[in-house]
Amino acid sequence: MKKIFSLFLLLITAVSFVSCTDSDDTLGDPKLIIKFKFDPTQVRLNNLGQPSTLAPGHGGQSPIFNGISSNYIEMAPLNTTPLGLGEILFHGAETTTGGDLAIDFSQAKIVGEDEVFLEVPLRAVNPGTYRWMRVSLSYQNYQISVREAGTDYTGTLASFVGYNTYINSFNIGSHVFDVNANKLQGYWAFALNDFDYATSGQAPVGATTVPNPLWNSSPIPDGSCVVTGNFFEPLVIEENEKKDIVVTLSLSTNKSFEWVDTNGNGKYEPSLGENVVDMGLRGLVPTYSR
To answer: What is the pLDDT of residues 187-229, one digit of tens each?
Structure first.
């Protein structure tokens, strides 16, 4: 299913893909600009886009984000618009180096809060009224707290939540992780910030939360991290726009890092066998300004 989803998107974007690296003749043109925001107070949603609390026996943290990446961004006019048939703004690089089709992590653009992730000339975007944003998130990097022998430490987690990612190597601080393989959604690596300790693991298949309020009218394939959210005020793009439009994608980080809390103390203690079960963002609220 994951491979079919990606091949479908490739077919669609072959016709309608708008590149963020257009030729120099677009310089000076007004642009559609995409940025990210991380909000630990935003409503925490489940896969159906409904408010959600932690499952019994689970612990959660609202991590402090360093960076994020996406491999697909689309605007949809209606709640019935099928995935892939809206206005596709971005489809990141993919590869078959690891076997099955996968996101090419070596070409991922990773940005922090309020940094520009994408710029698209507005003259290349179809005019219309857009009510929904769809964003396939692929990579997260953030700070979490870990307890060991009664002491709390801070560490950095690299979380790969895309449908399938080919990873050659990456680093967390001085720790280098040589992977050279495909990793399905839920692969993660962790390193303490001030100590010589690092590890990696894999969350259970299907455990990553991907909020989609349109699950009934416009579903997404299993294993794809396409988070869906609606504009409070629809985004209307006219012909011959004269100003930049900045779209901010506010992501709920409200207890988005979740684990099995074996002793119920609300502290993540991997040495006690407390396993990561969910690293999915907990909702998307897009806004825009001109």
So the answer is: 999 999 988 899 999 988 888 999 999 999 999 988 888 999 9
Listed in sequence order, the residues at least 6 apart from 113 whose beta carbon sits closer than 8 Å to its beta carbon are 35, 36, 37, 38, 65
Both tokens of 162, joined, read 């895309």
Question: What pTM was estimated for this model as a whole?
Answer: 0.88
